[in-house]
Amino acid sequence: MHDASSNPARPWFCLLLLAGLFVAAAGQSVRSADIETVSSVIENVPTVSVDLGASPPVLVTPNQKIPLRDVLAVSYEPSFTTRGKFRVTLGDGSEITGDLTAADESGESIRISAPFFQKPRQISLEGLSKIRRTGIPDPSRIDSKAIENDRLHLVKGGLVEGILLGVTPESVSFEDKKLGEITFTWDQLIGVDLAALEAVPQIPAESIRVSIEDPSGGRLSGALVTLDARQAVIENPVLGRVEVSVRQINGIQFKLGRVDYLSDRTPSEVVEGVDEDLIDSETFQLFYRWQQDQSVERTPLIIGKRRFRKGLGVHSDSKLVFDLQPGDRTFQSWIGIDATGHPPTPNPKYGSVIFRVVVDGKEHARESINWEQPARRIQVPVEGAKRLELIVEQGPGFHICDCADWGDARIIRK
Questions:
Q1: How does strand 109-113 pair with strand 95-100?
Q2: What is the pLDDT of residues 350-382, one digit of tens each?
Q3: What CATH number belongs to 260-413?
Q4: How far apart are CA 340 and CA 394, in angstroms?
Q5: Residue 21 gets which letter from DSSP?
Q6: Which CATH class for the 86-193 domain?
Q7: Secondary structure of residue 285 in the 3-state scheme
Q8: 358 secondary structure, DSSP code
Q9: Does residue 247 sit in helix, strand or coil?
Q10: pLDDT digit string (tens) for 107-116?
Q11: How many CA atoms lie within 13 A of 164 on its CB side?
């Protein structure tokens, strides 16, 4: 019989095995989370889960149970970053960023690899509204429900209308009334718009509606089935049941009717000023006027390590006035200098502003912040008020790099 103890390689093998188990366990470690509610932010919560059977449903932490109706978001520190070559928009508005893999021979579906999925997922073309190459500005703001034919957006400009025949990782097959059947390689295209063939099923009204965001910027909406320390499970109207590992999630937004984003409301008054010695007002209006859901430089809203899908981008000096509505209870926002406001060389006189929040003529918040500081959260009561003013003034120093963001600027309603 072979004596294992006499094998000098055995101890090293055991050590390697233990090391492998340790690494595997570390890879499956529970991720802590920040919980944003209608009244506060709870940081570094070690485990988060939901109990949908409770009445009312609750978010469960080691120290408390929070009614889901009061939860706005659960955020996780990104575990990795990734960026696929394509952004696919589903018929329900969800966006999946990833890479197209081997095509369906019938041409009636695509196959995409993305952080949301444990393995590449087959998606019928009938369930899609757009396919876009990432890193290229999207020329189309048209809802696919409003178009009768499929469309190709060409890199060199222009549209081709007709019928989409098939999609592969390398090319798109298309039928045009004048040109007949034609194939375009992806480097010739910005993307595809698909005409809606049928209505997308609605999420049941009694469901807990959520939107999950992954490290690539993808966003998948649906009805929450469960959430625990390992995974989130949702029911998407197009894809059906989707199980997503918590390691693949950056955040979960709860869509329970408590939030109105100010970027979805129209301001009743806009005042934007500029030092005429630096830039004339016409140029300012052309390049630096306020923006909805993007920075004043027309880029994603980013303050420090935080990225915001919704919000307002402005340049000092600015004032946006919003009429408040019955049921409005609290104004919340993250504030700070946008990533585009970081000066090319460190200078304390650049990228410094003062944020002010005025409600019915009374100042409720004043924060001085510069480009070196992280996003700061402010919260102001507005219940019963009529007028909300969001003001950004020039801070100490020069009127340069004053690109300011109201990240996730929103009204919490009753």
A1: antiparallel
A2: 889 999 999 999 999 999 999 999 999 999 999
A3: 2.60.120.1060
A4: 16
A5: H
A6: mainly beta
A7: helix
A8: E
A9: helix
A10: 789 999 999 9
A11: 29
